[in-house]
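Researcher: I'd like a structural prediction for the single chain below. Treat it as a standalone chain; there are no partners to consider.
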Amino acid sequence: MQTKITKSLFTISLRAFYSLMILSMLLAGVGVHPVSAAPTYTISGNAGVAGATITYSGGSTTADATGNYSFVRDRYWSGSVTPSKKRGYTFSPTSRSYIWINSNQTNQNYTATLVTYTISGSTGPAGAGATITYTGGSTTANGTTGNYSFTVPSGWSGLVTPTKAGYIFTPATRNYPNVTSNQSNQNYTAVSDMPVISGNAGVGGATLSYTDGTPKTVTANSSGLYSFQVSNNWSGMVTPSKVGFSFVPGNMSYSNVVSAQTAQDYIARPTAFTFASMADGHAETAYFSTTVNQISTLNPALVLFNGDLEDTGFALTEINPMINALKM
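Model: Treating it as a single chain, here is the predicted structure.
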């Protein structure tokens, strides 16, 4: 019994001795060394865009402000690396595969391309040349057709508003939340908000003058018809004129015009009407009747008679119409 106990104690003592010896050798830096950690390698490159997420088998990292990235994997690691970024980017290549790496993998670069979509439509000919303002920029509609288009990044949200001096648009604006496809036929209807003043000046070629910010004029056509636009809520005076004519009324005043003003007519009267001598034997009756009709139609402010009017062959029935015409 005593012998067994002694052997057990001896065995334990030897184990303790060897353990202390190994420990001392390790502390002294000689003899036995600890097992080295498994070697690691770095995979690095540029994602093509700042802030891209680099997802790899076993983890992920984020590209810095210049798009650079790197991460460490153990020797003989195998897996795939995939870059991604919110708000519409595509990458080339879409991913990279690795099999049993045993060295650093540098210049593992990607090309990032921003995905964009087109918003397009028309303001119509009335809205040609309109400014199309959208969140983040603006463009100009075609000067003839009113067609427009612009691109926005995937996931874009914002407002689009057309504007053109003197016009209002329906709808006034469009709202786009999270654009993920092309938006076509985004049309607007443009209507002038400048009231029209129109009528007849009483004589072809008359000039109508008015002031709307600056002095302006418009010319009546051969029939005397005229038309022009003024600013919304315009106030002012329109004055017709033509050499050799006076007008009734002499002008028209307007206050706070917000709707079309039609049938704004004037009577044009020659400043003077001159007729020559009516002598006997010269078809006095026909000539006299024509003159009377002209005076009645033109209603001149002044009638001048150049010559003499012989009474031979004229009766009161012929003289009276002239007198009546002059009375008008």
